Structures are given as structure tokens and as C-alpha cells.
Amino acid sequence: METATAPAARGRPREFCTDRALAAALGVFWSKGYEGTSMADLTEAMGITKPSLYAAFGNKEALFHKALDLYEAEKLQYTRAALKQPTARAVAEHFMRGAIEAQLSSCDPRGCLGVISATACGAEAESIKADVIQRRASSQAALVERFEQAKRDGDLPSHVDVAGLTSLLYAILQGMAVQAGSGASRADLERVVETSLALWPGR
Fold first, then answer.
1. Which of 12, 61, 120, 153 satisfies CB 3.0 to 4.6 Å to 125 for a cystine?
2. Spatial CA neighbour of 120 closest among 183, 60, 58
3. Which H/E stretch holds residue 14?
4. CA 73 to each of CA 66, 77, 80, 122: distance values in angstroms, whole numbers, following the listed order
5. What is the CA radius of gyration of the chain?
6. CA-based angle 1:81:29, to the nearest 5?
């Protein structure tokens, strides 16, 4: 666990845990979105001063990118596990059920940080949107390759448009994130998963 030295008004500098501070920042960005989060929101949640935040993490934009790294590492682990499932249908199911667990966690805000941030607007948010979109493109490329393998294995029918199927799955996942953020229940999202699997083109 890393610590950083924060400037103090008098006496010795005080140390704070950068891991805990970053986790707190992630919670704020996740609940309010990038544009909706103020520096005051961040410093209050992180328990540090603005100079300390700048010294340890850089500006708000740099802090968000670090928070997004943490989000991917801790909250999206299920997406990496999904790619290892034995069939394309199981991959899709693991993605969707993992999303439900992440989006309805009692410990975290509802919805998806990536979806919230990708819909941000304004000049300040352009680099944020670009980062989110680039990360999503990388994840989609991995999923396309997994589905191409399923097609080669005969697990998906030969006529299936793999890129289109991947885009469909992501559209479902993004829609679930929006619904979760709007108060949808677990039963509501489970119904989306079951319906989607009923329409799945493979075994």
C-alpha cells in the first residue's frame, strides 16, 4: 500500500494512503461522472487538500485516468474471466451476469463508470471520452477474437457476423448499465439476460 506526503499547515508533513485516496476518488467519479465531480467533492472524499491531490495524482483529469485504471483492475475482472469460458454463449452470459453483480453491488455506485464518462460532453471531457472509447475498443477487439475462435470451432454458426454480435452484446451491456443507474432491480436485469440468451445464435 503506497503512501504520499501531504503538505501540512504547520509541523511535520502528514502522510496519507494513496490507495485509499484513489479508491475514494473512484467512488466519487463513479457516482457523479467526470464532469459532475468537483475538486471539492474529491478532496472531501479523499480526505486531503487540493495541493496534496495535485502533488500525488496530478490534476483532475490525471486522477480520473488513474481511477479508471483501478476500476478496470478491480471492478471489471469478470470481463477477463468471461473470455476464458468454454463457449461463446457462456462468454456472453458471464459478461452479462458479471455486469449485474458489478452494477448492483451494495458497496459501489450503480451503473458503469465507462458508460457515464463516455456520455460526458464539453471540451474538458474530450480526452476522458477518448480514453474510455479506446479502452472499450480494446475490450471489444478481444471479444471479437474470442467469437471468431468460437466460429472456427463450430460453436457459432458460420453465417454469424461476429463484429455485429459483439456490438450487440455491448449494446445490451450498456443498456443494462443505464437501467441499473436509473434504479432497475436485479429481477429487471436478470430478465434482460435471460431474453438475450434465448436469442443467442449458438449453443
1. 120
2. 60
3. strand 14-17
4. 11, 6, 10, 27
5. 20
6. 50
pLDDT in tens, the chain (203 residues): 445 555 444 444 446 788 899 999 998 988 888 888 899 999 999 999 999 999 999 999 899 999 988 888 888 888 999 999 999 999 999 999 999 988 887 666 665 665 656 555 566 677 787 888 888 888 999 999 999 999 999 999 999 999 999 999 999 998 998 888 888 899 999 999 999 999 999 77
H or E element in which residue 15 lies: strand 14-17
Give residue 150's identity as a one-letter amino acid code: A
The secondary structure of 178-198 as a DSSP string is: HHHHTT--HHHHHHHHHHHHH
Read off the pTM.
0.77
| Other CB atoms within 10 A of residue 128 CB | 22
SS3 2: coil
H helices of 104-161, in order, are 113-118, 126-152
Q: Which of 131, 119, 134, 130 is nearest to 36 (CA)?
A: 119
Distance CA 63, CA 53 (A): 8
Residue 7's Cβ-count burial label (10 Å; 0-12, 13-18, 19+) is exposed
